[in-house]
Design brief:
This protein is mostly helical. Among the domains are: 15-52, no CATH class; 61-123, no CATH class; 149-226, no CATH class. The chain is 45% helix and 4% strand. It contains eleven helices and four strands. The chain has a two-stranded antiparallel sheet. Strands 3-4 form a two-stranded antiparallel ribbon. The chain is elongated and about 110 Å long.
């Protein structure tokens, strides 16, 4: 046997171990005939290419083991198996002889373990604790808008622009749009801000602090609450009608040119040097 040294293991024992390993049934690798890549929650021991899958472990194994030792009556073997530690490490934590003082981490509060699972383990010392999937974190739905650090210095400029161009907006609406406090808004309104000399009103949409849709909705809501009619962009309607008239005139002109070309072709007129069809010149020839 390669690597065998005299005195470490008898030749007979090595031969028996080799035959037992050869007779052991082989299992297929998870995900195909190749071992999983690094980073997967499985590890493979090279005993005749037999995969050994290890269960997932808690986020902080030593701190979790410390909490389980202090707050439960689980055995050291159960705690070591759940946390992925050696039993001597768990014993060192229990005897307070570990290299570092650990602060316990509650696995129940973190969603990695349940009280029912702990009770099963306490009733049966041979029971292996099963890690539970942590609940999905609840997304934040209330509170001020989050603004990246690179854009927080632009908040006073955006507030000054809203105060100047949309005085109907309340401090609460500006705070939701920009993600700031009422104290800052009041200081800019009263021009008592500590950096008022360097504040330049700038459009918060251009600065990336809010979107145009949110700004329009807030302005419309404020004007509706104040009893004023929402502004109508008359220039947009005028431009739209002018564009429609221009397109209609171009289409009618093209129709007249096509009719004239057909009439000239039927009359047998010759084409000029710069004409594609009668009445239509080639724009690329000069």
């Amino acid at each position: 046997m390669p690597g065998w040294k005299p005195g470490s293991m008898s030749e007979r024992s090595c031969s028996k171990w080799r035959h037992d390993l050869a007779d052991r049934p082989r299992r297929e690798y998870i995900g195909g005939d190749r071992p999983l890549r690094e980073g997967r929650p499985y590890s493979f021991v090279d005993f005749g290419r037999i995969p050994v899958a290890q269960p997932a472990q808690p986020l902080m194994p030593h701190a979790t083991a410390s909490w389980l030792v202090e707050n439960t009556s689980l055995t050291f073997e159960q705690i070591a198996g759940f946390c992925g530690l050696h039993i001597l490490e768990v014993q060192a934590i229990a005897d307070d002889t570990a290299a570092t003082k650990l602060t316990g981490r509650d696995p129940v509060r973190s969603g990695e373990l349940t009280h029912e699972e702990i009770e099963k383990g306490q009733k049966n010392p041979d029971y292996q604790l099963q890690i539970q999937k942590a609940p999905d974190p609840v997304r934040r739905t209330k509170g001020p808008r989050y603004t990246p650090l690179s854009k927080r210095q632009d908040k006073p400029d955006g507030i000054a622009w809203l105060v100047k161009n949309h005085p109907e907006l309340s401090d609460g609406q500006i705070g939701k749009l920009i993600g700031t406090t009422r104290t800052t808004i009041s200081a800019i309104r009263d021009r008592s801000h500590w950096n008022m000399a360097n504040i330049t009103p700038k459009d918060p949409v251009t600065l990336g602090l809010t979107s145009q849709r949110e700004l329009d909705a807030a302005v419309a809501k404020a004007q509706k609450a104040a009893g004023a009619a929402a502004p109508i962009d008359e220039h947009f309607e005028e431009d739209r009608q002018a564009l429609i008239d221009q397109l209609r005139a171009e289409r009618e002109q093209l129709a007249r040119d096509a009719e004239a070309s057909l009439a000239a072709a039927e009359a047998g007129e010759t084409l000029a040097a710069d004409e594609i069809v009668p009445g239509i010149r080639d724009p690329f020839k000069r």
